[in-house]
Write a structure and sequence with these properties.
Length: 362
């Protein structure tokens, strides 16, 4: 990824590495200071009569950096009507203009709970009973006592983190620009469910997966807002990058996720976002398969023959879903239809493609 200020490479840094805090769209603190000043243009346009937020945002996404030279800004203003901005401010919606609380699952935690059951003590006691005719009598029965047992169980560990509009924009921009650069590396994006990521090599993770190539954090907490993966997909599609599927969408529960394990997985949103842009489902060539899956036939999503044109930072989707207050138990990609419809629609797409390509399940 290139620095949005000077264009130099941004050092790769995890949230827990020396220096900490993960990555930013700038390469150094001086560039960060310059970016933070310029970034105000996106949200506070008063006094900037000749330059709109739409034009600045378009230039950032077009070049991958913001050139602060007055001549460049003037030129952008003059030609914007002809070239059309690559992203319109209103397409980002309110998510990039107000603070929000991001919610996500970070592993599991141990929870303690108790159960109480009645058990016999081994003794007999006399108790008074009443017959159906109202006559009382005594009967010998087993004595019972309540036994309380303490148990432990694993439950989702839900973390909440406040995110400002500026932070959200920076996270999305990093993902977008990093994905765009895969084109020059002639590498596809690798999409996967968490349980299969371990089959990838460290180099494949770092270059071809979002989780290992872009580490975004607020403070010392790494965050995974929905806009981060949305922008990653958008950037890759803009650069006409292919997508290799480490998991088979036809598999049992491959498309089910969320804390409640009944929602659509994020994998569903990613696949729907890509297939909606007319990407074609094909059999992945051996040379593009991950190292440990060379002998397995897997799916790849290839860009259509027709140019996709310019793409916004995040697509236009239901505002109830594309917000960075994301409860992963409600991770359905809804377009006015029941959540199950999207999942079922995708499974049918890949079932048909698998038959056409004569591909066994993997």
């Amino acid at each position: 990824m290139k620095c949005v200020v000077c264009g130099k490479p941004v050092p790769h840094q995890t949230v827990d590495s020396d220096g900490g805090g993960g990555m930013h769209p700038w390469c150094s603190e001086p560039c960060g200071a310059r970016w933070r000043t310029r970034n105000q243009f996106l949200f506070k346009l008063s006094g900037q009569a000749t330059l709109t937020g739409e034009q600045i945002l378009g230039m950032i996404i077009d070049k991958g950096m913001l050139d602060g030279d007055v001549r460049t800004l003037t030129k952008t203003n003059q030609v914007s009507k002809a070239i059309r901005p690559l992203s319109k401010e209103h397409e980002l919606g309110a998510a990039f203009q107000k603070a929000a609380v991001h919610q996500q699952q970070r592993g599991t935690k141990t929870e303690t709970y108790t159960t109480t059951v009645s058990e016999p003590t081994g003794k007999k006691i006399m108790v008074e009973k009443t017959s159906v005719k109202g006559i009382t009598f005594k009967r010998q029965v087993a004595e019972m006592k309540d036994v309380t047992t303490t148990h432990t169980r694993k439950v989702p560990n839900i973390v909440q983190q406040a995110i400002t509009p500026d932070q959200m924009f920076e996270i999305a921009l990093m993902a977008y620009n990093t994905a765009v650069e895969l084109r020059s590396l002639a590498l596809p994006v690798i999409l996967y469910r968490v349980d299969t990521k371990g089959t990838l090599t460290s180099e494949e993770k770092k270059k071809q997966t979002l989780s290992s190539s872009v580490h975004a954090s607020v403070g010392r907490t790494e965050v995974w807002p929905l806009e981060k993966t949305a922008a990653w997909i958008q950037g890759a599609m803009r650069a006409r990058v292919s997508f290799v599927l480490l998991n088979d969408p036809r598999g049992k529960d491959a498309l089910v996720g969320g804390v409640d394990k009944r929602s659509d997985a994020v994998f569903v949103r990613e696949l729907h976002q890509i297939t909606s842009m007319r990407y074609e489902i094909k059999k992945c060539p051996v040379e593009l398969r991950p190292k440990n899956m060379k002998s397995t036939e897997i799916f790849i999503l290839e860009p259509p023959a027709q140019d996709l044109g310019v793409l916004p930072l995040v697509p236009r989707i239901s505002p109830d879903i594309w917000s960075h207050t994301w409860d992963s138990s409600q991770s359905n990609l809804t377009l006015g239809d029941p959540a199950a419809l999207i999942r079922n629609h995708l499974r049918k797409l890949f079932d048909v493609a698998g038959q056409r390509l004569a591909m066994a399940a993997y």
